[in-house]
Amino acid sequence: MKDAFGLPQSLLVLGGTSEIALAVTRRLIARRTRTVWLAGRPSPGLDEAAGQLRALGAEVHTVDFDALDPAGHEDALGKVFAEGDVDMVLLAFGMLGDQARDERDPGAAVRVAQTNYTGAVSAGLVCAGALQAQGHGSLVVLSSVAGERARRANFIYGSSKAGLDAFAQGLGDALYGTGVHVMVVRPGFVRTRMTAGLPEAPLATTPEAVATAVELGLRRRSETVWVPGALRVVMSALRHLPRGVFRRLPV
After folding, report:
1. Minimal CA–CA distance to 88: which of 219, 229, 226, 227?
2. Per-residue pLDDT tens digits for 178-213
3. Are 157 and 109 contacting, i.e. CB atoms less than 8 angstroms apart?
4. What are the UniProt keywords, alphabetically (predicted)?
5. Is 157 a catalytic residue?
């Protein structure tokens, strides 16, 4: 069960090799988390991540999970919940894609959309149902400021995150009063392998900073977390700019 400050003893990570997810997990293990499930496609990277977390003192399991296989989500994730209550689910899988390539290859664009949105809807609903059945828990959804307004430079990725963000907000409303807490996390540019080589955006942050914000959000039972917090004001301004003006911005 979670403690008085909302921090979990048990954690299920969807996207078990995500640098941001692993930073969050390390921080939670340092606080209170003792059992971790890392869900992802079988790989040396997943095994390595599990080993690193075990070295921190946690009991760590891996589970085969593929965001692009919604038909298998209920079975794969159901096995985790069958082992006992899960205090927190961190939905952290996703792919950035390559905007220029994906515009030329609709199949590649669809893969981004299916991973970031369709897969998240399926897995999110499966986990939400399980959390509701046990009567408690948090579902933390890693969204992005890219979903606040589609930009020319990454509108395929941004549109998929916009869908994910709207879904998570609606799911939070649907679960209000059930004992299940949904928290949407909106980081800006995060320095990870996924963004390596890309021009760094203003207010860039790190996986560790996101992890700190997630912990604080859990303690406060926040519904939305911006990382860094200043992005809330920045994106509010950008969201309301006239389209003609927005098009001329170097974004």
Report:
1. 219
2. 999 999 999 987 878 778 777 777 778 899 999 999
3. no
4. Oxidoreductase
5. yes
Residue 4 predicted with pLDDT over 50? no
Nearest to 128 by CA among 158, 95, 167: 167
Residue 250 φ then ψ, to 5° = -80, 65
Please identify which of the residues 81, 117, 157, 226 carries the catalytic annotation: 157
Contact 44, 92 (CB under 8 A): no
Check if the beta carbon of residue 215 is closer than 8 Å to that of residue 7.
yes
34-53 pLDDT per residue, tens = 999 999 999 999 999 999 99
**Integer angstrom CA distances of residue 104 from 18, 145, 153, 169:** 27, 25, 14, 32
Q: Say what the alpha-carbon torsion angle 102, 104, 108, 114 is, to the nearest 10 degrees.
A: 70
Sign, Cα dihedral of 40, 12, 119, 150: negative
What is residue 225's predicted lDDT score, i.e. its pLDDT? 97
Q: What are residue 91's DSSP bridge partners?
A: 14, 141
